[in-house]
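tool=predict chain=A
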Amino acid sequence: MHSNLDTIETINKPIIQLKEKEFLSVRDVSKLIGCSRQTVYLMIKSGRLRAVNINKKKTIIKRSVLDELFEQHIPESQSESILQQYDINECYSITEIQMKYGISGKAINEIIKRNGIMKIKMGRYTYVPINVIDKILK
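tool=predict ok
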């Protein structure tokens, strides 16, 4: 019985130590939230997670930034209630924007991010208000 408790403590010790650190490496973040390092790098690249590159091979994430990431997440049920404020006919999907303006999905996401446009996720689809996108892209 005592041996089992020691084993559990040994397994959990690295996670407990990570929770106490103010600055985390990409590897630390991946262990802490249970994802791959590549996923953390993708989160940084997409702008969802702020990080500082202090060396060519050393990226640091402040613990408080990681905590903010989870506080900012809008559950899908709230996203659906935002969508109800708009008639679905008053919104474009990302694909519709691509077809209408002939630009890539990456470019559209960059425009949405740069201009702080509200996007609404519903299932697999992401919607943005027509009037906002038309004003920016015309």
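Residues 16 and 32 are 9 Å apart (CA to CA). The radius of gyration is 20 Å.
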